[in-house]
């Protein structure tokens, strides 16, 4: 069986208009052999869940810089179950304060990346968790 | 040229792509374009400042960006800032308001009052500006997609309080083209969005001639990855797109050009930024006089806010941002700006605390009161380096604009996503340079420290107050004259469909306490919604 490239959905939930980081991560993942689908701005958690299912991605990355990460991720946790997306790696990026990162992990987020983490560390994390044989 | 080959020092190239020599002399000024364009302040081409005496007569306005939770809470912060010597207000709205949604909309869940204050109806503006003298304190509304609605609310509120809007000063950001490039609070497709801006400019030209209906923003384009000459070049292309649209309506350039203003960024190399502002001022004056044939010198003025600098601040060692802010404010003062605002040191983490906002204000006041920045006009004018760089930057800005023209103009380039793609690719390359250490950032890729989470006071999210906003909205909707609301919205729909100026109908709607969401939806029904082009 030929291995297919990892498929990643980079999504902007809610009304936040900051897309510099999401686009930087998208470009870096593309350069590192991933197939990336970037949703564009202002998607509801439901639209993101539907896209993740329809595009059959391996990784879902939510980029949030408006401070609304907790309510948005709570919504997405429920949708993850509903749309059977729990086998997909769930990443969150943005300006997430350290004090909220534990709470996000409890919701089922696999890893949180902020400006303090290198782009390479995202790729390494994905490869480690989704290493294809 | 070739300076770096003649000496042993490595080459230095600024962000705008200009090679910097180790020493500048009079010859460099002459070779780069001469000294004719320098002139004196208050006279065409205004390189040194738009007013003859600049800060000697009137220092810059200090206008910190503020707003959160509800109009009640925001009103308290406004009074706090004014008590501390702030001379203007710059209103931050929450994302539902910015994207034309009411606080009870499904998409607004969790966002109400989060990054700014919620405004659903005229009642919210009545509360937000209570006790503030709108003749003494000018108000800037940072609103774009929903600008027509919020401008109407501001005028209606002022009228209700007895002000004559013919004499009312103030600014709305109302620059939608840059929202498609960065910041992202667009609502309608590109063409009707420009039409709406034309409506606000035309309405103000006839009814509120001292109000600045548009502040064209290079700022957010730079924050999204543009270099300083692109920041200014794209902003000028955008401003011309609005001007061209309004001229088609039969207005004369001198009817409205003097009320256009600009918003630019202040982080980066100090001399490059100062040259950017001086070059921009000169080039804009030439464009308005030579291309558009303006007669009134005021039409040629590049009036601006030079502020912010958020893209230069770091999450690492946040106290360093206080120092950066002071240098950015110095750049702003040396630039000859009309208005200054500074991002606060904690802004990479949270809405600024009162303490952080006060430090930003004091930073500007120290420059004004202690450092002699107001004593003389354009103190860097005449520097061989700064004059050479000003000449070179002017040429570079022109090149950016010519490139946009070759690609079919800014409206098309934005609608097809090409500008967004170019800017985001550059942001990526800049970030990679930062990661590789090719671009230095103190505390980030040099002079790093192992740090705990720094002692930042997080602005609390006021859940109860934001819930109360929804209750207030519902109460107003149940108590207002709903027949009058329906009539106003029907009129608005008819005006939008027929292509008439929609501002009079929006004024009627806001006076009837129609909501931000209702008015926006009415326009979306006619204009449609923007579909974001995704290019990589």
Question: Can you give a write-up of this model?
Answer:
The complex is a heterodimer of chains A (133) and B (536). Chain A is α/β, with parallel strands linked by helices. Chain A is built from five helices and five strands, in the order βαβαβαβαβα. Chain A has a five-stranded parallel β-sheet with strand order 2-1-3-4-5, sandwiched between helices. In chain A, α3 packs parallel to α4. Chain A is 43% helix and 18% strand. The mean pLDDT of chain A is 95. Chain A has a single domain, classed as Cobalamin-binding domain (Rossmann fold). Chain A is globular, with a radius of gyration of 14 Å. The longest helix of chain A has 14 residues. Chain B has 536 residues and is α/β, with parallel strands linked by helices. Chain B has one domain: Methylmalonyl-CoA mutase (TIM Barrel, Alpha-Beta Barrel), CATH 3.20.20. In chain B, α12 packs across α15. The radius of gyration of chain B is 23 Å and the shape is globular. Chain B starts with a helix and ends in a 9-residue tail after the last helix. At the A-B interface, α1 and α3 of A face α4 and α17 of B.
Largest interface summary: A-B, 34 and 39 residues
Low-confidence blocks of residues of chain A? none
Query: In the CATH hierarchy, what is the architecture of chain B at level 2?
Result: Alpha-Beta Barrel
- Describe the strand arrangement of the main beta sheet of chain B, using strand numbers: 3-12-11-10-9
The total count of strands of chain B amounts to 12
The figure for the number of domains of chain B is 1
Rg for CA atoms of chain A: 14 Å
CATH architecture of chain A: 3-Layer(aba) Sandwich
- Amount of beta strand of chain A: 15-25%
- Structural classification of chain B: alpha/beta
How do the helices and strands follow one another from N- to C-terminus of chain A?
EHEHEHEHEH
């Amino acid at each position: 069986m030929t291995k297919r490239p990892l498929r990643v959905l980079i999504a902007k939930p809610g009304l936040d208009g900051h897309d510099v980081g999401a686009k930087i991560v998208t470009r870096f993942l593309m350069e590192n052999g991933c197939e990336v689908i970037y949703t564009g701005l202002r998607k509801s958690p439901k639209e993101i869940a539907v896209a993740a299912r329809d595009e059959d991605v391996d990784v879902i990355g939510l980029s949030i810089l408006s401070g609304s990460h907790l309510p948005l991720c709570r919504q997405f946790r429920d949708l993850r179950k509903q749309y059977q997306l729990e086998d997909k790696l769930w990443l969150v990026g943005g300006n997430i304060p350290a004090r909220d990162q534990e709470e996000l992990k409890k919701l089922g987020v696999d890893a949180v990346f902020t400006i303090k983490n290198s782009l390479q560390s995202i790729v390494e994390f994905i490869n480690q968790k989704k290493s294809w044989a | 040229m070739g300076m770096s080959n003649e000496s042993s020092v490595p080459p230095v190239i600024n962000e705008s792509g200009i090679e910097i020599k180790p020493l500048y002399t009079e010859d460099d000024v002459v070779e780069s374009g001469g000294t004719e364009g320098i002139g004196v302040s208050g006279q065409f081409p205004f390189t040194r400042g738009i007013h003859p005496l600049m800060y000697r007569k009137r220092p810059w306005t200090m206008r910190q960006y503020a707003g959160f939770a509800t109009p009640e809470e925001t009103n308290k912060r406004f009074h706090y800032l004014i008590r501390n010597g702030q001379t203007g207000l710059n209103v931050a709205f929450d994302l539902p308001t910015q994207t034309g949604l009411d606080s009870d909309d499904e998409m607004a869940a969790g966002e109400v009052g989060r990054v700014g204050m919620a405004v659903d109806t005229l009642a919210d503006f009545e509360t937000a500006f209570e006790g503030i003298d709108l003749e003494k304190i000018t108000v800037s509304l940072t609103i774009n997609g929903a600008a027509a609605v919020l401008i109407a609310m501001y005028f209606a509120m002022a009228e209700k309080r007895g002000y004559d809007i013919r004499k009312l000063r103030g600014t709305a950001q109302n620059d939608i083209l840059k929202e498609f490039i960065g910041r992202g609070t667009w609502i309608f497709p590109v063409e009707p969005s420009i039409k709406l801006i034309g409506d606000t400019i035309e309405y103000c030209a006839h009814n509120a001639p001292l109000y600045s209906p548009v502040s064209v923003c290079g700022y957010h384009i730079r924050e999204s990855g543009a270099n300083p000459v692109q920041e200014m070049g794209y902003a000028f292309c955008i401003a011309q797109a609005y001007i061209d649209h309004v001229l088609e309506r039969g207005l004369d350039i001198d009817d409205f050009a003097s009320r256009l203003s600009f918003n630019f960024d202040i982080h980066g190399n100090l001399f490059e930024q100062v040259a950017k502002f001086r070059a921009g001022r000169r080039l804009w004056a030439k464009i308005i006089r030579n291309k558009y044939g303006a007669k009134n010198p005021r039409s040629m003025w590049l009036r601006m806010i030079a502020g912010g600098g958020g893209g230069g601040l770091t999450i690492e060692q946040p106290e360093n941002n206080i120092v950066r802010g002071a240098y950015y404010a110095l750049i702003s003062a040396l630039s000859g700006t009309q208005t200054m605002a500074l991002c606060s040191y904690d802004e990479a983490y949270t809405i600024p605390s009162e303490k952080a906002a006060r430090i930003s204000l004091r930073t500007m006041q120290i420059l004004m009161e202690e450092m002699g920045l107001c004593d003389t006009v354009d103190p860097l004018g005449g520097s061989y380096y700064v004059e050479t760089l000003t000449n070179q930057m002017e040429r570079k800005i022109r090149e950016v604009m010519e490139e946009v023209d070759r690609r079919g103009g800014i409206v098309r380039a934005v609608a097809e996503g090409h500008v967004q793609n170019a800017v985001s690719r550059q942001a990526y390359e800049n970030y990679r340079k930062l990661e590789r250490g090719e671009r230095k950032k103190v505390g980030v890729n040099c002079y790093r420290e192992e740090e705990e989470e720094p002692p930042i006071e997080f602005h609390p999210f006021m859940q109860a107050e934001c819930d109360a906003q929804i209750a207030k909205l519902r109460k107003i909707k149940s108590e207002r004259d709903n027949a009058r609301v329906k009539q106003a919205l029907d009129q608005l729909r008819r005006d939008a469909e027929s292509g008439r100026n929609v501002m009079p109908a929006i004024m009627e709607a806001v006076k009837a306490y129609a909501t931000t969401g209702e008015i926006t939806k009415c326009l979306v029904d006619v204009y449609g919604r923007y579909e974001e082009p995704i290019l990589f």
